[in-house]
Amino acid sequence: MVSLDTLNAEQQDKLKQYQTITQIQDLEEALGQLIEYNWNLERAIQHVYENTSKENKRKELEQEVASTVPAAGAAPRSTATSASSSARKKPSLLLSILLWPFGMAWNITWSILSLASRIIMARPVIQERKRDPRVLAVEFVETFERNYGPRHIEFFRGGYSQALEKARKDLRFMLVLLHSDDHDDTEAFCRDTLTAERLINFIRDKKIIVWAGNVRETEAHKVSHTLKASTYPFMSLVALQGTSTPRMAVIERIEGTCHPEELISQIDIAMDRHGAVVNRLLNERQQREMERQLMVDQDAAFNESLKQDQEKARLAEEEKQRQQAMEEEKMRQQQLAELQEQKRQQYIRYLFAHLPQEPKSNCARLNFRLANGDRVIRQFDQNATVDDLYRFVEVYPLVKEHGPCMEENVEAPTSYTHVYKFTIHTPYPRMEFPPSLQKLVDIKSLWPSATLVVEDDADQENEE
Questions:
Q1: Taking the CB of residue 77, how many other CB atoms lie within 10 A of it?
Q2: Within 13 Å, how many C-alpha atoms sit on residue 436's CB side?
Q3: pTM (2 decimals)?
Q4: What secondary structure does DSSP assign to 291-329, as a single string?
Q5: Phi, psi of 456 (to 5 degrees)
Q6: What does the UniProt entry say about where the protein is found (predicted)?
Q7: Cα 427 from chain centroid?
Q8: What is the mean pLDDT for each group of 10 consecutive residues in the chain (464 residues)?
Q9: Does the 54-82+94-274 domain belong in CATH 1.10.150.130?
Q10: Based on C-alpha coordinates, what's the Rg of the chain?
Q11: Alpha-carbon distance 65 to 287, whole Å?
């Protein structure tokens, strides 16, 4: 029995959860279910509550194989000595006649001894309690590795019917291997043959499912009875056979110990001889898989093309919306700029309407060299500020064109802050005078007279 000590903490926890949820008290049954589903707790629990006929199908598979086993005494057998015996030359006719009485006596004696041995020697003691085949499979592997080491052909970790089901589903050959501890050849066969590197590679490369068991256990004993095994070690090769409705059938029986090369040769020959059905089914499955994959690829290509078209349409729509948003923003900015320019012109007219009269005395006389090359002289009273200089320069084009302003009802625009687009400074040394409320009389370089240069800010940016 599989010891709980060999399970890790996670596996023990899953085992407890499984028994709690499913109310299965039999430890081996619960352990077998979890082993079958590779310790996937959810799938194992789902299996318990699913109303399926999986067990019935597995029994039908066992009956399929059993129906192909010939009756006792008529079963074709391959043994380790068959090849050597068939190679011997047949004796001459005269020698056969002379030896016939001795041969007859020997056959009668051998038959009597064989019958007596079968009566006297009972079959191996079989454990009566039915145990879960999956647990038995795990125990078989653990016992084998404990006795012969971890390097061996890969054994199927499940029941006999489960191995048949997998072989049928995956279209693979299945090798049934039975041995008995009461036979002297068992230890040598397990140690020398089943651990041979050549056989390990052959089984792996051919993808053969190997189900093995000790006939002392109930599962293996039942299989030995089904396959009518009489000599151990016993091997049976099973595969799908038939044309219209393929069924699992025994295609080769190998009884007795043999060397790895002999076993490989016999299995390989049997697979070549009976592999037509499996190969045909594999080709059909591959063809269906290719057709299915082709449809999947076509659907994927269509979906990818549709996705690309949708992406192009989405990008085009986004670009259209972006262009539309840009146009709307451009129009909005243009409208804001026009409104800003209207307010600017209104503010300049407001400054023009409120431009003070030029004083006659007690004033500063300033000579302006404008950005357009014009020169103008203007007098400012002692209360004038630097900001008044900027206002004069701003409205000078209107003064030049219209003379003194006659309008008085011009109002300043609301929600508007005027920004002068020029700078006033002295020619040399250069001294800039930004707009401020500082009086001219307090600036020595401007009072009582000075020459000032008006420079557009745009020209300064271009020079930089």
A1: 14
A2: 9
A3: 0.51
A4: HHHHHHHHHHHHHHHHHHHHHHHHHHHHHHHHHHHHHHH
A5: -65, 140
A6: Endoplasmic reticulum
A7: 76
A8: 70 79 71 78 70 58 70 47 38 61 68 54 48 83 92 92 90 94 89 95 95 91 90 92 85 92 95 90 88 91 93 94 93 92 91 87 91 91 92 90 75 89 90 92 90 83 56
A9: no
A10: 53
A11: 28
Query: Would you state the torsion angle of the CA atoms of residues 87, 88, 89, 90, taken in this order, to the nearest 10 degrees?
Result: -110
User: Which residue in the block uniquely carries the two structure tokens 């979906």?
Assistant: 303
Residue ranges per structural domain of the chain: 1-51, 54-82+94-274, 350-463
264's tokens: 């490989």
Residues 6 or more apart whose Cβ sits within 8 Å of residue 255? 77, 78, 79, 229, 230, 231, 232, 233, 234, 235
Token pair belonging to 144:
């084998």
Please list, residue by residue across 131-167, b when 16 or more beta carbons sit within 10 angstroms of its beta carbon and e when fewer do: bbbbbbbbbbbeebeeeeeeebbebbbbbbbbbbbeb
**The pair of three-digit structure tokens given for residue 6, joined into one six-digit string:** 């060999």
CATH match for 1-51 among 3.30.870.10, 1.10.8.10, 3.40.50.11750, 2.60.120.20: 1.10.8.10
Distance between CA atoms of residues 209 and 337, nearest Å:
84
**Locate tokens 């352990």: which residue?**
31
